[in-house]
Amino acid sequence: MTTVLADATFDPPGVPDFFPPAIVAGITKPMVLLVLSVVIVAAFFLIATRDLKLVPGRLQFTAESVYDLGRDSIAREQIGGKDFQPYVPLIVTLFSFILVNNLFGIVPLVQFPTMAHFGFPLALLVVLYPLFHVVGIRRHGLGRYLKLQLFPAGVPKPVYVLLTPIELFLRFFMDPLALAIRVFAAMFAGHLILLVFTLGGEFLLLEASAVLKPVSVVAFAFAIAMTFLEALVQVLQAYIFALLTANYIGRALASDH
Fold first, then answer.
1. Which residues of 114-133 are buried (b: 16+ CB within 10 A; e: fewer)?
2. In sequence order, what are the residues at sequence separation of 6 or more whose Cβ sits closer than 8 angstroms to the Cβ of residue 96?
3. Single pTM value for the model
4. Consecutive H or E run containing 4
């Protein structure tokens, strides 16, 4: 939908804005940002831990805080004190990787949250989905694992006729798919809102009549406010993705549900 003001026309941002043209040889901006995020995360932890000290500096303290968050607040709480340790590197890496890719959306000149492309969180899911079930099968065996997932204890047997198909749909399809959809939808919607206020403010300032130009100040003010809100959402979505990943692993390892 376009808006006409005087002789100018405002074309609101939409889905095409999430598909920038290729930079060279089919390589697009989201692809470059994805690779850059890996470099940033790897470089950050390598530099922060190359000279560990008893009294940490700012960089070491930040790295330790991220690690402690992944280890204690996510992995230990969701997977359990006996089983969480092998999965700490995965959880910390997931949180850091998604966080950097989300924060790209508010970095000047970059301004593109990579996870707003559904293919990227879906690719993460392709890697994580087998893990959710392999760890459970290795722990319990295939038959017992399926029983734990599809036939919750303490339920009257006739109820299984309705409950088991629902559990099958949730455990093996909807839960993991929702993991990818959640971060994608939040990044897509947040970036679109920022584009609306920013581009709308620019249009009002440069193209609208003198009467409407002051309204651009309001649009830019909302853009700034939404940027801070979006930063909070970006951090929360990275945390939630890591949290649910740990939860699904813990659920697969548990002896009852």
1. bbbbbebbeebbeebbeebb
2. 41, 44, 45, 66, 238
3. 0.89
4. strand 3-5
What's the confidence (pLDDT) of residue 19? Answer: 85
> Binning pLDDT at 50, 70 and 90, where does residue 231 land?
very high
Amino acid symbol at 92:
V
Three-state DSSP at 110 gives: coil
Distance CA 20, CA 167 (A): 40
pLDDT in tens, 195-207: 888 888 888 888 7
* CA–CA separation, 207 and 144 (whole Å): 67
Strand partners, 5: 8
Provide DSSP, 189-214. Answer: HHHHHHHHHHHHHHHHHHTS-TTTTT
Measure the CA–CA gap between 144 and 96, rounded to whole angstroms: 34
Tens-place pLDDT, residues 58-68:
899 999 999 99
**Residues contacting 252, CB < 8 A, separation 6+:** 132, 133, 135, 136, 139, 145, 149
